[in-house]
Amino acid sequence: MTDAVAPDPGAQGPDRVARVVLVDDHRMFRTGVRAEIGRTEVTGIDVVGEADDVESAVRVVAEARPDVVLLDVHLPGGGGVEVLRRSTAVMGEPGGVKFLALSVSDAAEDVIGVIRGGARGYVTKTITGTDLVNAIFRIADGDAVFSPRLAGFVLDAFAATDTPPVDEDLDRLTQREREVLRLIARGYAYKEIAKQLFISVKTVESHVSAVLRKLQLSNRHELTRWATARRLV
Amino acid sequence: MLGGVAHGLAMHLGLPVVWVRAAFVLLTFANGLGVLLYAVFWFVVPIGLDEPVRGQRGVSYVWANGQFVPAGASGVTPDPLRKGRRGRLGRLRDVLQGTFQGEPVIAEESAVGGGSPGSASRQNLGQLAALLMLVIGVMALLNVLNIQSSSPYTWPLLAIGVGVALVWRQADDSRWQRWFGLQGGGKRRVAFARVGVGVLLVTVGIIGFLVLQGTGSTLAAVIEASLAVLAGVLVLTGPYALRMWQDLAAERTARIRAQERAEIAAHIHDSVLHTLTLIQRRSEDPKEVQRLARAQERELRLWLYRPEAAAEAAPDTLAERLRSVVAEVEDRHGVPVELVCVGDCPMDDRIAAQMQAAREAMVNAAKYGGGGPVQVYAEVEGRTVSVFVRDHGPGFDPDTVPEDRMGVRESIIGRMKRNGGTARVRPAPDGGTEVELEMERAADD
């Protein structure tokens, strides 16, 4: 996320700690992320494991049972989607472990693919350390994290078929959800969206979570058509 | 028309195609010379090699004054005689290259029909006509030579000739198909049928020939002996031939792979390596390093992730234009600009004006936005195009801007109004400024 005025990470650090596993095939990148967010006493993030391919990722995640897995999309051995698939198979459906995709790629098929695979959010590697820490805590709390770009992709995916309401489908986006997505795409933080729409931050979060759910469920209509039109599937 | 021979010759000699065709037809009546010549040219010169071969001969031909002239020659007409000879040699070289190296000698299919679009169907009609003319020509030839009754060899010879023509013509076609990727199941069946009929015709012709020569009685023995020899040769050379074929296939694959790798390497070299070198040299100038890295990242990302079809199909749409504007502002002002674009539409005058206003808004945001990332969101919804530009700077009150400052008032708000759109400048909820630009697309689609 790109929070404009991120709360001082030190403020939330001590009272709670999120256990995180890093999955990325570039050691340099893992080292960098660990250095940036891994100072537990300041950020409240405890890096409890690292993995560099699908095989080791599934193993480490199953062993460490972290709160959040920072998952790269492109990995040797099948990619982030494969990690998601096999982890849920190993640990059972909820497992308490949540996945946040962190990738250098902002290609639509990568983003949509990993979200539909079950990741709770998607941020690109250009994200700042503070924003990443915020995103991790938000994910740990069970919320979804949408980057502006991800919001753009989702809007794009639903836009074409949203106007003519042929049947009242469950996985159609509501007016409010689209409004929230549009504000995210415009670079608003959740707090700002709440202010703008005169709703609470909690409501914003629940809207975003609803969108995420629809995104993961909606394999029947819009996304399939959208993906097919772009030759993504 | 039939094989593109007249066309090719016309190009080489610098004459109108019609003249060449007329010459062929006229020559046909001189003891069938035209048909013979045409056939010889057709078989000797593979289709396509007479077409403009880009980069190989260094001369490209353009259609001018009803004929093909070498482009870049700028009025200097090449000596036709010399060209003719050189052309033959060049052609021969090309033929050899084409045959042995599989050099992609590219011919424009449409060029045969004069380069006009939609010439394919007309071309088919033309081919039909040409075929008819050929038959008539052959009849004329037979009449002229007056041999259809006198010589019993005519029919076997004719059968052999047609058979050979069929098979050769097929080879010709498979070449076409390889170049244009037209290989379909149906076409392949037709190809097999053609070759089969050709072979049959030739066989029948030869047998007829032998029978007429009186060696028909020993035909069985001759065929047996030939088959035995053939089988022997096959057994002996079969493994070698197979091996050669496999080597050839392997080599072709390897070459394609190497080519791909070379292209990627070239791209990386041209872009990434150069940038890295520049960055090393300028490591003491963080601003410049950032600018270089950002520009390079953008370019590489585009190259890696953007679907090729989208890149080629619509070179100038809203999203495309926005991307270039964003890149320009990023580079010039050294502030990252994050662009999210939902939907796309072709450009028109009003959208162009909107893009200019958006550019101005981005420049403002980059200048006064406190150096943080500028966020741009564009959305096409029905006929409405909205663009939002927001920064995270200190923000300002539009009402307090002095009268003489023209940036926001004229370049953004005024421009949008003049073109029938609206612009709003307002403070963002948690600091910073947001500019909203809304424009209806022009009526016609």
UniProtKB/TrEMBL annotation, chain A:
<keyword id="KW-0805">Transcription regulation</keyword>
<dbReference type="GO" id="GO:0000160">
    <property type="term" value="P:phosphorelay signal transduction system"/>
</dbReference>
<dbReference type="Pfam" id="PF00196">
    <property type="entry name" value="GerE"/>
</dbReference>
<dbReference type="GO" id="GO:0006355">
    <property type="term" value="P:regulation of DNA-templated transcription"/>
</dbReference>
<protein>
    <submittedName>
        <fullName>DNA-binding NarL/FixJ family response regulator</fullName>
    </submittedName>
</protein>
<dbReference type="InterPro" id="IPR001789">
    <property type="entry name" value="Sig_transdc_resp-reg_receiver"/>
</dbReference>
<dbReference type="InterPro" id="IPR039420">
    <property type="entry name" value="WalR-like"/>
</dbReference>
<keyword id="KW-0597">Phosphoprotein</keyword>
<feature type="domain" description="HTH luxR-type">
    <location>
        <begin position="166"/>
        <end position="231"/>
    </location>
</feature>
<keyword id="KW-0804">Transcription</keyword>
<feature type="modified residue" description="4-aspartylphosphate">
    <location>
        <position position="72"/>
    </location>
</feature>
<dbReference type="InterPro" id="IPR011006">
    <property type="entry name" value="CheY-like_superfamily"/>
</dbReference>
<dbReference type="Pfam" id="PF00072">
    <property type="entry name" value="Response_reg"/>
</dbReference>
<dbReference type="InterPro" id="IPR000792">
    <property type="entry name" value="Tscrpt_reg_LuxR_C"/>
</dbReference>
<feature type="domain" description="Response regulatory">
    <location>
        <begin position="19"/>
        <end position="140"/>
    </location>
</feature>
<dbReference type="InterPro" id="IPR058245">
    <property type="entry name" value="NreC/VraR/RcsB-like_REC"/>
</dbReference>
<dbReference type="InterPro" id="IPR016032">
    <property type="entry name" value="Sig_transdc_resp-reg_C-effctor"/>
</dbReference>
<keyword id="KW-0238">DNA-binding</keyword>
<dbReference type="GO" id="GO:0003677">
    <property type="term" value="F:DNA binding"/>
</dbReference>
